[in-house]
Amino acid sequence: MTEPIQIRDDSAAPAGHACGCHEHDEDTPVLDVRAIPHAVRHAAIFGAFEAIAPGGSIVLIAPHAPVPMLTQLSQRAPIEVQYLVEGPTEWHVKVTRAVA
To answer: Which domain holds residue 76?
Structure first.
């Protein structure tokens, strides 16, 4: 027997967080793309990037310098890029969605 779906009142969600899970991100989210199958990796990154509000950031962890991906992201919205770790086996790149 399935349990009934419970509807929550999202009015208590933290400011800027509207999904209703009643959690909030205190730090910059980190997306380790090495664990994502290559066939869907770019789509996952685009989805994560679209969830970042202007002024917000995400850290991508990649197995190589993600220059082509950064170019693609910059075509979607203005970005600022900061390399936190540069190889040789992994790159950590903080991508901030610039405020227009």
So the answer is: 26-97
